[in-house]
Amino acid sequence: MNVTIVDYNSGNISSVINSFKEVAQDKVNIEVTSDLDKIKSSDKVVLPGQGSFKSCVDALKKINGLTDTLDEFAIIKKKPLLGICVGLQMFADIGYEETETKGLGWISGKVSKIDNQNGKFKLPHIGWNQINIVKDSKIFQNIENNSHMYFVHSYEFVPNDKNVISATTDYSSNIVCSIEKENIFGTQFHPEKSDKIGLKIINNFINL
Amino acid sequence: MLKNRIIPCLDVKNGRVVKGINFVDLKDAGDPVEQAKIYSDGGADEICFLDITASNENRDIIYDVVEKTSKKCFVPLTVGGGIRSVEDINKLLNCGADKVSINTAAVENSKVVIDSSKKFGSQCIVVAIDAKKSGEKWEVFTHGGRNNSGIDALEYAKQMEENGAGELLVTSMDRDGTQVGYDIDLMSKISSKVNIPVIASGGVGNLDHLVDGIKLGKASAVLAASIFHYGKHSLKEAKEYLDSKGIPVRI
Questions:
Q1: Considering the entire predicted model, what is its pTM?
Q2: Would you give the DSSP letter of residue A8?
């Protein structure tokens, strides 16, 4: 099996690569590439994302044909795709970080700044927070409710259809921190930095 | 609920841990990779390396250390010490660091923080402030505490937030190494001044100091070195103690 981590110059993805390689060992081939043919032929795709919504969307678009290839992979062929952090946020129609920017539009909704309640909550939301699992998700197999995950973000994904939400976390309000819509998965937290429990989520995705 | 973080810090010189955990079963007590792994297995919320290598020719060793550590530890890794440029940051992140902590370069050239936070995102840019009390205020020191910039630490903290820092690592130079506790006044003043998380550092001698750093100093995270070295306290003990004092921690 081939799992491709999309390398589109979205910032630091070495931790994502390290964690997937740690979980995969020799059983699964982990590719790190922006090569369109390799993405098309892979079994699963991981879409990481660091920095701002706009910088990630811009970086995706800079690689000719990449968004079309990802569309084909996730929407037409319905093969499993996992977005991490801004990778998840880009599923939305629109994001408001820096300036209004169109997303991939896979899951209807918007990405807006977390309400810090007049400075009561510090931003970025950095550190370990518990997840509240609100629906069964294939990537949460053997993951206990209220497990701790590592977060670092200032913006949140607000999907229109609440049925796609698989987990939330409590920071200022109930922030969407995981989604599952058919073959599309996303986590706002960083499974690659969430210790053994995070590696278990990666393992669940690899074994889908 | 967001948990307060405990971050053990390892001083690394020429690729070796200077002060370290003194465990009998440790194969190589000076190996930063092995020590980081012990901390991460012990429940560290993050790991911090401070590279105190003085000579230029040995500066590249840290990249190798970071690369090996990031393949074994799956909690966030912050690396600081000797970072001069956006290119230095790029290299450390590529080796597997999740965040970098910038000290002198942030004072000397504000563009380093502005440019790197734009390029890599604020989430990986920590500005380290070494502050020393001077009358009623605190002044920012650079070059490992040797040079006084004369800059007011509170104003500087606010400026760094505006420049794009994602977190501030605040060290009281008056308290560092004394084991008498954090400079609570400094921590709480900076934490109240900015809307980004503050990591308290410098002066921890016992577990109550960690509690004070969070409760009184309003820090989001506490960094400590010596109390975790030589087995004085384990991370587990520290977390259970904080928990018993009503501080939310990841256990």
A1: 0.95
A2: S
A149-173 pLDDT, tens digit per residue, is 999 999 999 999 999 999 999 999 9
Query: Over the stretch A114-144, which tens digit does the pLDDT of each residue have?
Result: 999 998 999 999 999 999 999 999 999 999 9
Nearest to B250 among A52, A148, A170 (CB): A148
How far is C-alpha B22 from the chain's CA centre?
A: 21
Strands A44-47 and B16-17: unpaired
- Kindly determine whether residue A122 and residue B93, on different chains, have CB atoms separated by under 8 Å: no
* Cβ of residue B239 closer than 8 Å to a chain A Cβ: no
Which amino acid belongs to residue B208? D
* Four-residue CA torsion sign, A38, A157, A150, B224: positive
**CA of B71: how far to CAs of A14, B37, B48, in Å?**
9, 10, 15
Residue with tokens 């990779």: B33
Active site residue B174: no
- β-bridge pairing B5-13 and B16-17: antiparallel
Side chain identity at residue B107, one-letter code: V
- Three-state SS for B157? helix
Say if residues A178 and A137 touch (Cβ distance below 8 Å). Answer: yes
